[in-house]
Write a structure and sequence with these properties.
By secondary structure, the chain is an alpha/beta fold. The chain has one domain: 3-Layer(aba) Sandwich (Rossmann fold), CATH 3.40.50.2020. The chain has eight helices and nine strands. The strands form three sheets. Strands 3-9-8-4-5 form a five-stranded parallel sheet. α3 crosses α4 and α4 packs across α6. The longest helix has 20 residues. The radius of gyration is 19 Å and the shape is globular. The chain binds zinc ion (ZN) (2 copies). One zinc ion binds next to loops.
């Protein structure tokens, strides 16, 4: 009697946390809440966000042609001086993944961001487990933007990746000291200048000598992630790999 009561209570809680609507497209979901990696995505959205339709460059995660030779990078990153060593993406910024990112940006998006962090881990655990990371660090928002949004998407994603990897999550290791305008600059050098000096390492001890997994929601030109990675390396990080949910 008590057992079934508790079960009903637990089911009620699951329904509350994972309502029977897809977190991306909003349609009613048939079936359970994502199995081991619990999420509210319907089968179609889950398939769409976890099936990268293109090949991606292993160094900068940009979309490349199906037969491109990426052994020394791609047209986007060859000859560029990105501060990170490699980048992993869940997928390109299009379709349902783009819808998901836009939904995450509202205040109610934190739960969805956590779910997408689990989906990201589930889909890329092989790739991520192959590398030696010591700590996960999210790309921080400036405090004023964080205040407006209510949370930092990169932090919600990063927390789930750290849980999956079973390593430390240093959510405040990196700080954004300058509120940089959105990246609308026309040239690569203008974009680099825009983010120069934007970050500061607040806790060197948590990253010194470690392989860092730097997490962001969207990677556009790579200049923000690059500046964050350079800042981490100057403070003693051994290597920096970027995990971006979506790559433009
Ligand atoms: Zn859906
Ligand atoms: Zn590349």
């Amino acid at each position: 009697m008590l057992g079934s009561g508790l079960q009903a209570l637990a089911r009620g809680f699951v329904d509350l946390v994972f309502p029977n609507r897809c977190g991306v497209c909003g349609t009613d979901r048939a079936g359970g809440a994502g199995g081991e990696f619990r999420h509210s995505l319907c089968a179609e959205c889950h398939r769409a966000v976890t099936t990268d339709p293109h090949a991606a460059c292993p160094f900068c995660a940009a979309t490349v042609g199906p037969h491109a030779d990426t052994s020394t990078g791609c047209a986007t990153c060859r000859g560029s001086s990105f501060g990170f060593d490699a980048a992993v993406r869940l997928g390109p910024y299009e379709g349902q993944l783009r819808d998901a990112v836009l939904r995450m940006k509202s205040i109610a998006g934190e739960g969805l961001a956590e779910q997408l962090g689990r989906v990201f881990w589930e889909a890329r655990r092989g790739e991520l487990s192959n590398r030696r990371f010591g700590v996960v660090v999210p790309v921080p928002l400036h405090w004023s933007r964080r205040f407006t949004r209510g949370y930092n998407q990169a932090e919600a994603l990063g927390r789930e990746l750290a849980l999956g990897l079973g390593i430390a999550f240093a959510k405040s290791a990196l700080e954004r000291v300058r509120n940089t305008p959105q990246q609308g600059q026309p040239t690569a050098s203008a974009r680099r200048d825009n983010v120069k000096g934007a970050f500061r390492v607040a806790r060197c001890a948590s990253i010194a000598g470690k392989g860092v997994l730097l997490v962001d929601d969207v990677m556009t030109t790579g200049s923000t992630a690059s500046e964050a990675a350079k800042t981490l390396k100057l403070a003693g990080a051994e290597s920096v790999v970027v995990a971006a949910l979506a790559r433009r």
